[in-house]
Amino acid sequence: MEAILETKDLSIAFGGHVAVNGVSVKITEKKFTSIIGPNGAGKTTFFNLLSGQLTPTHGTIYFKGRDITKLSTTNRTRLGIGRSFQITNVFPNLTVHENVRLAVQSQANVRYQMLAHFNHYKQFKEKANELLELVFLDDKANSLAVNLAHGEKRKLEIAMLLALETEILLLDEPTAGMSLEEVPAIIDVIKKIKGQEDRTIVLIEHKMDMILGMSDEVLVLFHGELIAQGTPEEMIENETVQSAYLGGQYDEQLT
Amino acid sequence: MDLISTLVINGLATGMLIFLLAAGLTLIFGLMSVLNFAHGGLFIWGAYTGVWSYQLSGSFIIGIIVAIVTGLLLGLITEKLIIRPVYGNHIQQILITLGFMLVLQEFIKVVFGPNQIAVSPPAFLQGSFYVGDVIFIKYRLFIIILGLLVYFVSMFILKRTRIGLIVRAGVMNKEMVQSLGINIRLVFMLVFMVGAALAALSGMLHAPYSGVIYAEMGLEFSILAFIVVVIGGMGSFSGSLFAAILVGIAQAFMAYYVPALSLAVNMLLMTVVLIFRPQGLFKAKG
Amino acid sequence: MNLAKVEKSTWIYLAISLLLVIVPFIVTGRSMQFIIIQFFIFAIFAMSYDILLGYTGIISFGHVMFFGIGAYSTAIVMNRFDSTILSFILAIIIAIILAAIVSLIVGMLTLRLKSHFYAMLTLALAGLFLVGAEKWRSLTGGNDGFTFSLPEILRDSQSLYMLCLLSLVLIFFGLRRLTKSPFGRVLMAIRENEKRTESLGYKIVHYKVIASVVAGVVASFAGVLYSISLRFVNTSVFATDMTIDVLLMTIIGGVGTLIGPIIGAGLVEFAHHWLSSLADVHWIFERWIILYGIVYILVVIFFPLGIVGTIQKKFFNRQNYQKKKQQNPRRKLDEGRKEDEDELYRNG
Amino acid sequence: MMSSLLRLNQVEAFIQKFHILHDISFEVPKGEVTVLLGRNGAGKTTTLRTIMGLNKVSKGSINFQGEEIGNLLTHRIANKGIGFVPEEQGIFGELTVGENMRVAMKKEDEQTTKRMEWVLDLFPDLKKFWKKPGGALSGGQKQMLAIARAYVNENELLLIDEPSKGLAPIIVDKVTESIQQMKEQTTILLVEQNFLMASKIGKKFYIIDDGRTVHSGQMDELKEDKVLMKKYLGIS
C-alpha cells in the first residue's frame, strides 16, 4: 500500500512541555485513519503539524515522498492537504454561502481576478450551493456565519473543507459539541465521502463506536507518543491501549 | 573627548525624558495590552497644568505635584470612559484613543489659550558646572537622576512587592487573579493612572528643558514615545529605557554632525529595527 | 452588457451622480463649489483608505504619504514644465507610478508585521516623508511650499468640479467592482480571519500588498486633485492630521462600505466649514475639533460600523428575518446552545 | 438533614447570545465531594464558571451559605470562601511557584503559613521547584500547584474542573490522593471525566446534559447503572 503522508520522528515542544514526541506514522492513501487518545494527548497538535499551523521542533513530514516540513499552510493546502478545525474557524461576518464560495474559488485557482463581478462565476455559486446542500445548510446560505449555531458552524467547516477537493482530509473532531440529534447527519456525510473511495481521510474522534464502524486503521496517541497502531479490532484487544488509555472498562468514553 | 561626553549627556537627558513618557505607554501596553494613542494628550496636560501652577506659585515642586495629580485624574477618566468599553480590541483602542488625543489637545487651547508658553527651570536647577572639561547642565542632570529613579522604583515595585506580583499575574491570567479574590479592575485602573501620571510628569519635566510648551507637542512626542516602545519591544520596561537612551543619544549626535537628518533618525532606527527584528530589541518572541 | 443584470443600487448611484452634475449650475458661489470639490477629493482619499481598513483590516497611519506623493508630483511637474494639459497628464502618470512603487516596497517590507507594528511603522514612514519635504527645499520649497500655474481649463471652477466628480464616480464604481470581485472577497476573508484564509490556499501577503498598492495609487490620485484644486502645495499634505482626518471620515461613514467614506467625507467637510463659520457666534466653534473628536469617540463606542454600516446591518437583519419566516417557519430558534464552551471563552 | 453549602436553583446562563445553561439545579452538602458528570460540551465547565461569577447568571439563583451570590463580582465571590481550580489550571507561567502561591495568599498570618506548610507536605514537588517558573512545570506539577493555590486560603468550598485532564495515570493517582486528603477539611465540587477517579472520591453525583441537570444519585449506585451510563456518558 502506498503511504500518502508520512511522519518521521515528529516532535514539538512548547517551553518544557513536549506535546508531540517522536511520532512516526504512515498514512495509507485512500484509507480512513482515525486518531484517538484522551484529552491532552496531543492529537490536535499533531494535526497542526501536519497542516502547517505549527512547525515541528524536529522530525520530518513527507507528502507523497516529498519533504513538506518547511512548507507554509497555504502551500500544503494547494498540494492537497486540507483540514477542518476543532475550534470553529470560519469567516464570521461573511455569509455562509460566501464562506464556502471562497474555498471553491481557491480550488478553481481564481485568486487574483479583480475585474469581474463574483456573480460572473456561476459555477462557483452552484458548487457552493451543492456543498451546502450536502451538509444540510442550504437554508442558511444567506445568514452571516457568526449567527450560526455551533453545530451548523461545524457543518460549514466541513463544506469548506470539501470545497477544496484536497486529496487528504484532516478532520478534527467534526462532531464535537454537536447535539446528539445532529451527529448522525454528519456521520452520514463522512461516510458518503468515504464511500467515494477517492480521498484519504484522517480523523480525530472520541466516540469509539463511530471509529469502529468506519476506520481502516486506528492510531492511539497518549502523552504525545504513538503507543499503538492497527485495525480497530486490534486496538480493542491491545493491552497497552487498554491499560494506558482505556484504563479499565469505564473511563475511556468520558473524555 | 569632552565634546563626545557633552553630547552623550545631552542624549541621556533627552533619552530619560522620552523614557518617562514611554514608560507609561509601555507599562499600559505590557500590562494591560492597551494601545493608548492618547498618551501624548496626558503629556501636554501634565505640562500645562504643571507649568501653570509652577508659574502661579513660583514653586517648581508644586508644579510637579500638580502635574502628577492631573495625570492621575485624567488617567482615571480615560480608563473609565475611553478604555473600558474597548478592552481586548486593539483596532478599536487605536481608533478611540486617537480621537481622545485630539480632544485633549484641543481642550488645552480652550483652557490655556492657543499660544505657546515660555518656561524656564527653577533657580536651583539653573546653570551648569564643569567636571574637568565636561560641562554638566544642572537641569539635565536632574532629569537623568529622576529618570533612573523612576526606572528603579518601578522595577522594584513590579518585581518585589505583592501589588507588583498581582499586576504581573493579572497580565498572564485575568480571570484566575479574580478567582483568587483580587479586584483586578481596580488594580488595572491604578496601573493606568500610574502610567498616565508618568506621562504627565514627563510633560512637566520637559517644559523647562525645551523652554516652551504648545498643544501640538503631544502628538509629536507620543510618536517619539511609540517609536521607543517599538524599538525596545512593546511592553518591555527595560527595553524602553534602553531604546529611549539609544534614541536620545542618536538624536544628540545627529543634531551635531548631520543636522539635516536629526529629525529622521528615530524613524530610521525604528524602520530598521522593525524590519530585522519586528518584536523589538528586548523581547524574546513576537 | 446586459442591462437587466445591473444591480438596482448601481442605478441609484448613477442617478445621484447625474444630479451632482447639475449642482454647479445651481450653486454658483465659488467658495461653495470649492467646498464641494474638496468633498469629492477627500471622498476619493477616504475610499482608498477604506480598501485598507474596511476591506482588508489593515490600520495604516501613514496613508497620507501617498496623498502627499500625488500632490507634490503634480505641483513639481506643473512648476517645472509648461502649464499645459500634456504636462498635467504627465504629472498624473508620475504620481501614480511613484505611489505604486512606494506602496509596493513599503508593503513588501512591512505587511508581514502584526497590525499595531504596521500602524506605527507607517506612521514613522509618513513622518520620514514629511521631514523629507521640509528638508529638500530645492524641490519642495520647504515648509512654506510654493504655488504653481495651471492650464486655463483647470483654473475654471466648473471644469475642475466636473473633473473631480467624474474621477469620484469612476473610482467609486471601479473600487466597488474590485470589492465585489473574487479578489475583493478574499480581502474580506483576510479581514475576517487571516489564518483561515491561508489554510484555504491563499497567499495573504500578496493580497495585502496588492490592496495597499491599489489604495496607494488612488490616494495619490486624490493628492493630484487636491494640489490642483489649491494651485499650491506645502508640507501639510504629509501631516499626520490629514491621516487622522481621513480615518475619521472612513469610520464615521462606515468602514467596509465604500459609500460610507464618501458620506463621512461630506459630513466632515461640511461640518468643518459650517462649524468654523460659527466662530463669530461663539469662540468654542473655533475649537470645532473638540466636538468632532467627541462625536467620533461616540461613534467608535456605540456605532463601530459607522453610519452606513449600521443602516446596512439593520436592513440586512430585517431582510433575512423575513426570508427565514417565509422559508422555514418550523425551524427551532434556540439552536445556539451547543456552542463549544472553550471556543467562546477564547473569543469572548 | 445535612445542610447544603451551595445550592443552585434553575440556573440559566448565556455565553454571548448562546443559551448554554438551561436548568441547572443541585446542592453541594457540606463536607462531601460532589461530582458533576456529562459529555463534552454538556455545560459542566460553564456551570463552575457561572458559580465563580466568570459568567453571568441570567435566571435562577446561586446560594452559598444562605446568601445569594449570583451576579456578584468574581473577586467578591472568591472572598466569600470559594476556591477555583480551572480546567486549564490558570498557572501564572512567568511567576515562580513561590510567587504563584504568594499571589493567592490573602494574608500572611500564622494560620495561612500553617496551611501552606501542610499543603506543601502534600505536594513535595512544589517545594522542590519553589523558584522555578510555573510555566516550566510538567502538567501534573501544574495541576498540583493549581490545587495547592486554591487550598492555601481558608476556603469553605473548592471548585475543581477536570484535574485529571491530560495527566499520566500515575500522576492521576497522586492527584486523587491529595484531593482525598483535602476533602477531610473542605467541601469539594468536582467536574471530572475520568470516571475511575470520580468514583474513588465522589459521594453524590449529578449528570448534566444539554445545559440541564438530568439525573442525580450516589456514586456507588451509578457504577451499576449501565443504561444511564450509556445514555448520558456514552460509556458502553
Automatic annotation (TrEMBL), chain A:
Residues 5-248 form the ABC transporter domain. InterPro entries: AAA+_ATPase, ABC_AA/LPS_Transport, ABC_transporter-like_ATP-bd, ABC_transporter-like_CS, BCA_ABC_TP_C, P-loop_NTPase. The keyword Nucleotide-binding applies. Gene3D superfamilies: P-loop containing nucleotide triphosphate hydrolases. GO terms for molecular function: ATP binding; ATP hydrolysis activity. The keyword Secreted does not apply. This is ABC transporter ATP-binding protein. It comes from Oceanobacillus chungangensis.
TrEMBL record, chain B:
It is a multi-pass membrane protein. InterPro entries: ABC_transp_permease, BCAA_transport_permease. One of its GO terms (biological process) is amino acid transport. The chain crosses the membrane at residues 7-32, 52-74, 94-112, 139-158, 179-201, 221-247, 254-276. Pfam families: BPD_transp_2. Keywords: Amino-acid transport, Cell membrane, Membrane, Transmembrane, Transmembrane helix, Transport. GO terms for molecular function: transmembrane transporter activity. It is found in: Cell membrane. Its main location: membrane. GO terms for cellular component: plasma membrane. The keyword Ligase does not apply. PANTHER family: ABC TRANSPORTER ATP-BINDING PROTEIN (PTHR11795:SF442), BRANCHED-CHAIN AMINO ACID TRANSPORT SYSTEM PERMEASE PROTEIN LIVH (PTHR11795). Belongs to the binding-protein-dependent transport system permease family. LivHM subfamily. This is Branched-chain amino acid ABC transporter permease.
TrEMBL record, chain C:
GO terms for molecular function: branched-chain amino acid transmembrane transporter activity. The chain crosses the membrane at residues 12-27, 34-52, 58-78, 85-109, 115-133, 160-178, 209-234, 246-268, 288-311. It is a multi-pass membrane protein. Keywords: Cell membrane, Membrane, Transmembrane, Transmembrane helix. It holds the Pfam family BPD_transp_2. It is found in: Cell membrane. Residues 323-348 are annotated as: Disordered. It comes from the Bacteria. One of its GO terms (cellular component) is plasma membrane. Its main location: membrane. This is Branched-chain amino acid ABC transporter permease. It comes from Oceanobacillus chungangensis. The lineage of its organism: Bacteria, Bacillati, Bacillota, Bacilli, Bacillales.
